[in-house]
Write a structure and sequence with these properties.
The chain has 237 residues and is an alpha/beta fold. The chain is 49% helix and 9% strand.
């Protein structure tokens, strides 16, 4: 599962992804939804009272991704999530926080480059291998695990390491290692801005060595994480 196992992903492969929508229950007030909207720009966010309304909304359009959110530990009792039939990917998010929203935003950016329209050819006939979708799901679920490697992802989708490396770079425009590093540093910056210690951030984003983390962070950001944290906190005062 994704961040802190709060996000559950169900991927329907070989579909034409068309649109994205976020549906919340009443546990998210206006200010909460505004914060979600700020992070998920251009994604419609609506609030629904009943499960029937959720079902009706999902059936209105062939959404490429539907995200259900709640601030509570569980969804309302009448929200029978397993009964939902979606055209594309269904994500459920409980006890939503900023890091979870970052994960979702990151995932959307990853798969967004693969959006096709009804007039386009199907993914099977186009240059969009379903394996890429599956690999991105796996990577997002394990992004902050210290043992995430190219070999593990390739093994998960049952292709060779070399072949996966080639098709990944071909379709994302960057190598696997570069992709993972950039994602991890993005989250590290958010955590440092929130005042988390460099040590906590290091281990939270998938690194087991502070020196190695600091070296990579400085290479990407331009300054070391301690200085970045200090400047960010001073700006937020």
């Amino acid at each position: 599962m994704m961040e802190l196992k709060k996000v559950i992903l169900f991927l329907r492969e070989s579909v034409i992804f068309l649109d994205v929508i976020v549906i919340t229950d009443q546990s998210l007030d206006f200010n909460d939804r505004a914060k979600v909207q700020e992070l998920l720009k251009d994604v419609p966010i609506i609030s629904k009272d009943s499960f029937i309304e959720v079902q009706k909304t999902i059936k209105e359009k062939e959404y490429r991704l539907v995200a259900l959110m709640t601030n509570n530990d569980t969804f309302p009792d009448d929200w029978r999530i397993p009964e939902l039939e979606t055209f594309g990917t269904l994500i459920t998010m409980i006890k939503v926080n900023k890091h979870d929203l970052f994960m979702l935003s990151s995932f959307l950016r990853s798969v967004g480059i693969f959006v096709v329209t009804k007039s386009s050819s199907s993914p099977t006939d186009s240059n969009i291998p379903p394996l890429i979708y599956k690999s991105l799901i796996y990577i997002e679920e394990n992004m902050y695990q210290n043992d995430l490697t190219l070999d593990k992802v390739a093994s998960n989708i049952y292709i060779s390491r070399c072949h996966f490396s080639r098709i990944f770079k071909s379709h994302l425009g960057q190598g696997f290692k570069e992709y993972v590093i950039n994602k991890r540093i993005q989250k590290a910056k958010i955590m440092l801005q929130e005042g988390n210690s460099v040590t906590e951030v290091c281990y939270s984003v998938g690194y087991g060595d502070l020196t190695h983390f600091g070296r990579i962070f400085k290479k990407i950001v331009g300054i070391n994480p301690s200085l970045y944290r200090k400047k960010a906190l001073k700006t937020n005062e």
